[in-house]
Amino acid sequence: MIKAENISKRYKSSEGTVNAVSDVSLTIEDGEILGFLGLNGAGKTTMIKILAGLIEPDEGSISINGVKSAGKLQVSALLEGHRNLYWRMSAMENLEYFGVLRGLSAKAARQRAEELLQMFNLSDKAEQYVQKLSRGMQQRLAVCVAMVHNPQVLLLDEPTLGIDFDNTQALVESINKLKEQGTSILITTHELSVAEKLSDRVAIITKGQLVADNIKPKLLNENVKDFYQLELGVDIDETLKAQLSALSVDVSQRSVSGIADEHIYEVMNLAKPRPVISLTRVAPDFEKVFLSYARS
Fold first, then answer.
1. Torsion of CA 87, 90, 91, 95, to 10 degrees
2. Residue by residue, what is the 3-state secondary structure of the chain?
3. Which residues of the chain register pLDDT less than 70?
4. Identical fold, 2-221 and 227-294
5. Per-residue model confidence as pLDDT tens digits over 44-94
C-alpha cells in the first residue's frame, strides 16, 4: 500500500507562483487500481513524479506499508512518452539488463523476464529487437521493464497513448493480472473507457486540487445529476445555438444534450415554437461524471 498525505508542490514562473499540487492525499491499497484523472495541466504528472520519488514535494509525506521515505525500488513509474527501452537490444535482453540493474541476480532476472513476457503475451517476441516491435508491443514491454524487480507500486502515466485497440485490450488484461498479484497500481489516461474498465477507485484532480476520490459505483451515483436530451424536428439555427450555448449544454444539428434540471424549462421556452420530437432523461455515464468534476 502506498499513502500520500497532504502533498503540495509549487513552481515559480514569470507570472508568479504556480500551485501544481495543493494538499493532495491519496491511498492505493494492495491489489487495487486507482484511476487518477484530470484535464491537461491539472497536476497528474507532477503527482506521479512525487510518488515515484523523482521530485520532492514542498509539503507532505509518502509512505509504503506504513514506512515513510521507503526505497525508490518499491515504486516503479512509466511516464508518458518515455518507454525506457534499448531499441537495439531484444525484449529479453532489455528485461535481463534492467532486472540486474535493479538488484536481481542474472538467473532471477532471466526467470522474471520469462514470467513477464508470458504474462504480457510477448513470449514469441523475446528475441526480437525492440525497434522491430510494434508500438503497442513496445508499450507492453515497457510495463514489463517497470515490473521486472517486483515493485509493490506501479505508476502508469498514459500507458495506452498512441496504441491500437488490440494492444490496448492486451495491456488492460495484463495490468489486471498484475493487480491480481497484489500490486498497487495508479493509472492516468485520457481514454476514459480504459479508466472505467481498469479502475477500482477513481480520483479526479483539477487545478492541483483533489475534487473526487471514490469507488466507481459511488462516483457514478452520488453528487451527479441526471441530464436531459431534447430532439427537435428542425435544424437549430445560429441564434438559438448561441442562446443554448450560454446554458452550458451541448448543441448539434437537431438535438440539445446535457440539459440540467434547472435549465430544462428555459431550454424548452427557447425552443418554442419549433416542433419537439422527444425529451429524454439520460443518466450520467462515466465521461459525464468525470467532466462534471474536472470542470468544477
1. -90
2. CEEEEEEEEEEEECCEEEEEEEEEEEEECCCCEEEEECCCCCCHHHHHHHHCCCCCCCEEEEEECCEECCCHHHEEEECCCCCCCCCCCEHHHHHHHHHHHCCCCHHHHHHHHHHHHHHCCCHHHCCCEHHHCCHHHHHHHHHHHHHCCCCCEEEEECCCCCCCHHHHHHHHHHHHHHHHCCCEEEEECCCHHHHHHHCCEEEEEECCEEEEEEEHHHHHHCCCCCEEEEEECCCCCHHHHHHHHCCCCEECCCEEEEECHHHHHHHHHHHCCCCEEEEEEECCCHHHHHHHHHCC
3. 69-73, 81-83, 217, 221-225, 296
4. no
5. 999 999 998 889 999 999 998 888 865 566 888 887 766 689 999 999 999
| Predicted local confidence at residue 221, as pLDDT | 67
| Sequence ranges of the domains in the chain | 2-221, 227-294
Q: Domain spanning 227-294: which CATH class is it, in words?
A: alpha beta
Q: What is the pLDDT of residue 79?
A: 76
Q: 2-221 domain in CATH 3.40.50.300?
A: yes
Looking at residue 115, its pLDDT comes to 96
Using only C-alpha atoms, the chain has a radius of gyration, in whole angstroms, of 23
pLDDT at residue 70, rounded to an integer: 54
Q: How far apart are CA 159 and CA 156, in angstroms?
A: 6
